[in-house]
Structures are given as C-alpha cells and as structure tokens.
Amino acid sequence: MDLVTPGIGMIFWTTLFFLILLFILGKFAWPAILSAVHARNESIRKALDSAEKAREEMAQLQADNEKILAEAKQERDAMMKEARNVKDKIISEAKEKAGEESAKLLKHAREAIQNEKASAITEMKEQMALLSVSIAEKVLRQKLSGDKEQKELVDKLVDDIDLN
Amino acid sequence: MTKKNITGAFRVLLFSVLFSSISLFAQHNNTSPQSEHHDSDIQHEMQSTKHGDEHAGEESEEFNASEVILEHVKDSHGWHILTTKDGHHVNVPLPVILFSKHSGFHIFMSSKIGHGHSYKGFELGHGTIMIENSKGELTEKSVEGKILELDEEGNLVGAGLPLDFSITKNVFMMFLAVLILIIVFLSVAKSYKKRGVAAPGGLQGFLEPLIVFVEEDIAIPNIGETKYARYMPYLLTIFFFILIHNLMGLIPFFPFGANVTGNIAVTMVLALFTLLITNFSGNKAYWRHIFAPPGVPKLLLLIMVPVELLGILTKPFALMVRLFANITAGHIIVLSLVSLIFFFKSVFMAVPSLVLVIFMDMIEILVAFLQAYIFTLLSALFIGLAMPEHEHVQA
User: Is the ipTM of this complex over 0.85?
Assistant: First the structure.
C-alpha cells in the first residue's frame, strides 16, 4: 500500500470510527466531565473566597478587639484619674469642713463660756448683794439700836456709796 | 541473509522485543523485488503473479532495511507476528472486505491470500503494474500490498483494483483504540458523577489535567471565552484520538504498533474535519476577509482572492502532512535503529542499538503528546480565526 496515497478503505473506516467516537464521547463523556470539572472549579473558587472572607473578618474582629481593649484602658485610666480627683476633693473638703466645724465649735464654746461667766458673775453679784444686804440688815439690827448709831451708820453708808 | 544469520538474529530479536517490533526481520521473507516486466500487448497484466513459487529461495537474500521499514510503516491486510526458525510465518489473519464492480462484495480472511495464494481471483499485488489511464496511455502504478482481481488467465479484471474496505492492521488498531477511549472516558465520566466535586483519583486524576489543558490552554485562548464551549467535544475527541494512536503505535506488540496516525488517509480525514468545522463556523468577517479584504485595491483582489481561497485548503493540508510525517518519521527512525543489528549482522550491535531505540522511544513519547497538542492547537486556532470578534475597520 502506498505511503502517501490515501486509501479509500482507511478514509472510510477513519471517518466512521471518528464520528462514532465523537458522537458517543460528545454525548456521554465530555459534557459530564466538563460540567463536573467546572462545578469543582466553582466550588474551589467559592471555598477560597469564603476563606479569604473569613480571614478578613478575623482581622476585622481582631482590630475591633484591640480597639475595644484600648478604649477600655483609656476609660479605666480616666476613671482612675477622676476617682483620684474626687478622693482629693473629698479629703480637702472634709478637712475644710472639719476646720470650719471645729472653729465653729470653739466659737460656740467660747461664747457659752463667756455667757456662763457673765451669768455667773451676775449671779455672784446678786448673791453678794443679797448677802451684803442681809449682813447689813443684821449688823444694822444690832448696831442701830440708838439714834446716834443709826445716824453714824447712815453717814458711813453714804460715804461708802460714794466710794463705790 | 543466510539461514544461520536469521537464527542468530532471531535470538537477538528476542532481546530487543521489548523495544521494537518483532515482525521486523521476517517481513523480507515474503517481499521480493519483482523484476520489471512490461507487457505491451496485454494492457492490464500484472507483472508478477507467480510470487508464491519464488519465496523458497528468498532467505538467502541480503537484508533490505528500507524494504522492511516501509513494509512495517505501511498498512497491511494481515498482522505479521513473527517468522520461526524454519521459515514458518505466524500471522494474525484479518478480514478482507472488497467491493468489485464485476463480482460485487467479498468478505474473507486475509490468510486466504497470504504468501502468494489466490482466492476467488483475488491476490496481493507486488511491485508495479502497467495500467491505462484516462487518456489511454500506459502508466506505471505501484500495487505493493494492494489486492488485485484477476480472471482465470491471470489478467486484471477491469481496472484490476477492487475497492478495498478491509479491516487492515490500522483499522483493527483504530477499532481497539476507539473502544479503549470509549470505555476509559465513559468510566471517567461515571466517576465524576460518583465523586461530585471531590478531588479526582486514579485514571480520572491522570486524564483531568489533559482535559483541563485542552480547555484552558488550547480552546479558550484561541477560540474565545464566549464561543469555545461548542468546539470542546471536537477538540477533546481529536486530541485523545491522535494521542492514543500515537502512543499505541509505539508499543511494539500485537495488537499495537500499527502506524495509524502516520497513515495519510487518517490524517487527511482528521484535517478534513477541521477544514469543515472551520468553514462552517466562519462568520461574516471571515468570509469578507477572503472575498473582499478591506483596504485592498480592487485590482489586487484578482490575486488576493485565489490566494485566500487556497489558504483555506493549505491550513488543513499542513495539519495532515505534519502529523503524518512526524509519526511516520518516528517509526522509521526506531525501525532503522533496530535494523542496525541486522545490517551489521552482529549481536554486539544490539547494545548500542537498544540504547538508541530506548532514547528514540522516549522522544517519540514526547512527540506523541506534542503532535496531538499541535494538531488540536492549530485546529482551535483555525476555528478561532474563522470567527474574528470584530470586523476590521476599513483603512
């Protein structure tokens, strides 16, 4: 058989076999295989996408956490500072108030003492007056049994009063 | 080659049987260069019909490498396995299917016409015959390996060459290859259905990269994302069709080793498919480019249009010749290297010959993939070129 002259038999059989192969594989094999490959590609692509998304979400979450942590820290610092201020203020206020209070008490005490002293003095004066009057009465009752003595006394008394 | 040499060579061949064809050396036994013998008064007479009587003395002939190689590279009606020490041929007979204008259909096994025997007037031709062409002139025509139809007197009947639809060596291996492809890919398709989107395994895992390669590196870049899907079945089929024949052709045992993709008829049919698909999918811009190329002066069209029309044919023609030549050349080189052993008539030649044959077979495996790739790539390219996305702007 010639090498470069196509033979009719070979042309016939090749055409027949190739068409049969093309028909069978084209109907039963290629569509199934290609669609399966495409489906898998798609699922791999989706899986990769979702993994990427998850990674991004994780990063986002981490960033959020850090932010929240930083905020909390800041807040805590602020609160501590405030608390310190409040404490200082309370202490100073307390001190101030205590001072005021003690001063007030002192003043009251002093006033009371003063009042007591005054009333005591007044009472003493009254008592002394009463005593002196009664003493004087008794003395008078004894001494003033004559007119002369009365006169003397009165004079003396009068002198005394002037002296007072 | 003497009988003794053949015996020695046979032992060597048993060594090299893994790497080259066993049928190689024995072939020269029944192929004898026929003496030229022109018969002017009987136009359609065969030159040598007495072949059967001659081949007793042939074994003393010198080893003819080119004859052996060509015999092997070409198609044949029977499948020659080996020749034993005592010159007995072991053949696998194949069905011969003939259609003759004179005697109609005939189906018989090739063993009936082997070794110069004649059956119902049919026999294998050798050498050349003189045949009258349409102008009435006598021309020489090679009938080597072809089946001739003869009448009782030994004259050719009619044109002498019945239409030959025989299941030859090539057809037989092609049938086998097609069967293997169908079984393999149907089972792969089934395993895809079973596995769903799970990772591919086994045969599926081996074939998937090739399928994806055809899709993503051949079809999509050349035809385009939007239109390629229609052509995928054709491209995949032609890729694996060529690939399996290339690979099976490299296996030297029966029922492999036939040179199918190195047969011009096979590559012609494949190229014709590409030609038809290309031109049937050609869009307006493609035909416009052929019959009215934009920006070309009217006078030049007289030259341009025939050139473009010729271009339609030359592209698939190149496909046909490229595949045929590459695969045939590969077979010829491997066979030549094996022939070295018999050429030098030395067992020691077997060692370098084997090394070279193994090396060539490695390259041929690469070529098998490469040629399948190139044929598919160029088919995709031609199809893609036949449907340009945009019309060219008038210059």
Answer: no
Answer yes or no: is pLDDT of B281 > 80: yes
Q: Is the pTM of this model over 0.95?
A: no
Structural domain boundaries in chain B: 3-164, 169-385
Give pLDDT tens digits for A79-119.
999 999 999 999 999 999 999 999 999 999 999 999 988 99
Residue B328 touches chain A, beta carbons under 8 Å: yes
d(CA B72, CA B256): 12
Note whether B64 and B134 are within 8 A (CB).
no
pLDDT, tens only, B299-351: 888 888 899 899 999 999 999 999 999 999 999 999 999 998 888 888 888 89
> If you ran DSSP here, which 8-state letter would residue A144 be given?
T
Give the count of beta carbons closer than 10 Å to the beta carbon of residue B237: 25
Q: Are B211 and A4 inside 8 Å of each other by CB? A: no
On whether the CB atoms of residues B357 and B16 are closer than 8 A, the answer is: yes
Contact residues, chain A, for B263 at CB < 8 Å: 10
Q: Is B185 on the interface with A (CB under 8 A)?
A: yes
| C-beta separation of B12 from B243 below 8 A | no
Residue A139's closest CA among A147, A128, A151, A150?
Answer: A150
Could you tell me the CA-to-CA distances from B365 to B182, B330, B343, B355, B361 in Å, in that order? 22, 10, 26, 16, 6
Q: Rounded distance, CA B191 to CA B315, Å?
A: 38
Q: Which among A14, A20, A43 has the least Cβ separation from residue B266?
A: A14
Closest-CA distance, B304 to chain A, in angstroms, reads 30
The Cα B312–Cα A122 span in angstroms is 148
